[in-house]
Amino acid sequence: MERHDLITVPTVARDFWKTTMMTPDRQKVNPFFLGGERIIVSYPTNTMSHPDKLMSMRGNSPAFSRSTVFHELIPGHHLQFHHMARHRPYRNLFSTPFWIEGWAVYWELLLWQRGFPSQTTGQKWATNAASNAIGMLFWRMHRCARIVFSLKFHLRQMTPRECIELLVTRVGHERATAEGEVRRSFAGDYPPLYQAGYLLGAFQLRELRRELVVDPQGPRWGEKRFHDAVLRENNMPIELLRALFREEKLSVGRRALWKFRV
């Protein structure tokens, strides 16, 4: 982030972050790394059986984890939470996964475009670039599958067992991680549109970036200005964020009309 000057990384956010270990029971519901104010590492523990340890390592291989860490830490959720505590905290009332999760997945899309799988610090080409690319593509498929199985489940078009089979056969999940993902999605802790918000929110932010940063007919914001502005406005629906950046006047009866590219 700093080498390419893509976003401001405050010293306290860069140098101080917390790590905790995912318990074996929680890994049955959250099989992958998680984040927020801390990064929660999903790796084997000494109380697991040997097959469960191997499964945990397969589900969180280095190539998978490399893409998870920037999603959870910087510029993802850890940096988000840093700004949410300091800029317009009243907007947390309007919390939406399209902003929270969309921001983290947006960076998956942008860093793929910038060749992140083949880059490592101090080395132009990583020897495991192919593995890193596969890891990022796995997560892209995972985000797509989340939209399909979560919406179809809530529309009563798929059973939980069918959702698991989709993740195993179409995405390439281990069966245990697929079961954990489905348990997490339908345990009642997330609203019906939460899982769809990851990729659809990322598409919204990518389109907003195109309008403000990339489009030659647009305002031509710089990358850093755009990314800093998103975080400092805090949690809000992306269409309202777009209206704010475009200085549009809002009416009481305004309805969502923005058609964004996917």
Give a verbal description of the structure.
The protein has 262 residues and is mostly helical. The protein has one domain (11-245). Helices cover 55% and strands 3% of the residues. It contains 12 helices and 2 strands, in the order H-E-H-E-H-H-H-H-H-H-H-H-H-H. The chain has a two-stranded parallel sheet with strand order 1-2. Helix 2 (24-27) links the parallel strand 1 and strand 2 (38-41). The radius of gyration is 19 Å and the shape is globular. It starts with 10 loop residues before the first helix and ends in a 17-residue tail after the last helix.
From the structure above, extract its key features:
single chain; 262 residues; mainly alpha; two-stranded parallel ribbon; 12 helices; 2 strands; 3% strand; globular
Task: Set out the fold topology.
Layout: H1 11-15, E1 18-21, H2 24-27, E2 38-41, H3 50-59, H4 62-72, H5 77-84, H6 97-113, H7 129-154, H8 160-171, H9 175-186, H10 194-214, H11 223-233, H12 238-245
Parallel strand pairs: 1-2
Helix pairs in contact: 4-6, 4-7, 6-10, 7-8, 7-10, 8-9
Short précis:
With 262 residues, the chain is mostly helical.
- Secondary-structure element pattern, one letter each: HEHEHHHHHHHHHH
Largest sheet: 2 strands, parallel
Q: How many helices does DSSP assign?
A: 12
Overall pLDDT: 90
- Care to count the β-strands? 2
Strand composition percent: under 5%
Strand arrangement within the widest β-sheet reads: 1-2
Tally of domains = 1
Shape: globular
- Report the radius of gyration as a whole number of Å: 19 Å
Terminal CA distance reads 25 Å
